[in-house]
């Protein structure tokens, strides 16, 4: 019965009438709030920052494509980051909330780029500048933007594990046989994280004592059939991460992803885990795939949202529960899901 209860997922509710300040359900105790999003262009209206501020997050997490630079010109990259810092709503957020995050291809500097991008070390320094990482931080000399951050409170603890799916990623395999852009590599060929980052990730999960472990990946993990960038293009890496999560016995592991210009919940049961693995995709902040007509995802829960939105996670330590919300302009909760761990 205990295992059955841990799998209970509340019915997804589509709510287009939530009040602007209604992103947090006052009827339920919230101990910690995490907001995140991806795919943000400075030249488009940045409509959501007031709603993100209103949600009063303890942390904001960038999920990648935080700007759209696609360049090896660091002065241009820097100017775009500066433009984002100057957006009034975002400027207010960074002054009241801790900001973490990763990059994806467009802020990395090369569309669909990986380890072959020759300006990645310079780009990494500009990324750390945007994230306001001190010059003396060890992150400044590290290869790749992966990192962890622990939030310890009286009620419980949360570990944020941020991955870099760009710096070490080996080439993709173009699909010349179908209308899809990319097809999976042969099993065992290539890597997303690189061995050093893999060892680091395995160690972080194995030794985590946190009540919840949130893994941030710029690309989707569970949705794998759409033909764009996804962990599924490296099937052996998918297996390794699932096995790592199960073997670690880490509590409350959740994946956050971006990249796709759509938002959705995906969920998969893994042998050896008492709760399902959830991949919450939130994309995009300023532009979306408004022509979306459907794509396969056997792990999808509920509907795909293809209007501008951000993701919100409200944690309750006593109930071992997370309320997941996809939130649109005006604080409208477009879709939500509850999971007990």
Automatic annotation (TrEMBL):
This enzyme's EC code(s): 3.1.3.1
Domain PhoD-like phosphatase metallophosphatase, residue spans: 91-264
Enzyme class: hydrolase
UniProt entry tagged with the keyword Hydrolase: yes
CDD domains: MPP_PhoD (cd07389)
Record's keyword annotation contains Signal: yes
Keywords, ordered alphabetically: Hydrolase, Signal
Signal peptide: 1-22
GO molecular function terms listed in the Swiss-Prot or TrEMBL record: alkaline phosphatase activity
PANTHER family linked to this entry: CALCINEURIN-LIKE METALLO-PHOSPHOESTERASE SUPERFAMILY PROTEIN
Record's protein name: Alkaline phosphatase D family protein
Lineage per the UniProt record: Bacteria, Pseudomonadati, Bacteroidota, Flavobacteriia, Flavobacteriales
């Amino acid at each position: 019965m205990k295992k059955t209860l841990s799998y209970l997922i509340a019915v997804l509710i589509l709510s287009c009438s939530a009040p602007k300040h209604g992103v947090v359900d006052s009827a339920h105790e919230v101990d910690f709030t995490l907001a995140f999003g991806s795919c943000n262009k400075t030249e488009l209206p940045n409509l959501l920052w007031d709603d993100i501020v209103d949600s009063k997050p303890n942390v904001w997490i960038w999920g990648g494509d935080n700007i759209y630079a696609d360049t090896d010109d660091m002065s241009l990259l820097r100017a775009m980051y500066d433009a984002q810092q100057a957006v009034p709503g975002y400027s207010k957020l960074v002054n009241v909330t801790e900001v973490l995050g990763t990059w994806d291809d467009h802020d990395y500097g090369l569309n669909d780029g990986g380890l072959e991008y020759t300006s990645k070390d310079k780009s990494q320094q500009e990324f750390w500048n945007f994230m306001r990482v001190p010059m003396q931080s060890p992150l400044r000399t590290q290869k790749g933007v992966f990192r962890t951050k622990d939030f310890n409170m009286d009620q419980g603890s949360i570990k944020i594990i941020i991955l870099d799916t760009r710096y070490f990623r080996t080439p993709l395999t173009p699909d010349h046989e179908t209308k899809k852009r990319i097809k999976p590599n042969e099993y065992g060929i290539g890597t997303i994280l690189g061995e050093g980052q893999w060892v680091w990730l395995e160690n972080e999960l194995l030794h985590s004592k946190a009540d919840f472990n949130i893994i941030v990946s710029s690309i989707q993990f569970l949705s794998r059939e759409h033909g764009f960038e996804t962990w599924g293009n490296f099937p052996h890496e998918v297996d390794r991460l699932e096995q790592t999560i199960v073997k670690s016995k880490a509590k409350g592991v959740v994946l956050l992803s971006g990249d796709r210009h759509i938002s959705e919940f995906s969920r998969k049961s893994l042998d050896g885990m008492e709760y399902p693995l959830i991949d919450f995709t939130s994309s995009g902040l300023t532009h979306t795939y408004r022509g979306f007509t459907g794509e396969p995802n056997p792990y999808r829960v509920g509907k795909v949202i293809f209007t501008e939105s951000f993701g919100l996670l409200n944690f309750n330590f006593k109930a071992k529960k997370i309320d997941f919300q996809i939130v649109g302009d005006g604080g409208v909760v477009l879709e939500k899901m509850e999971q007990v761990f």
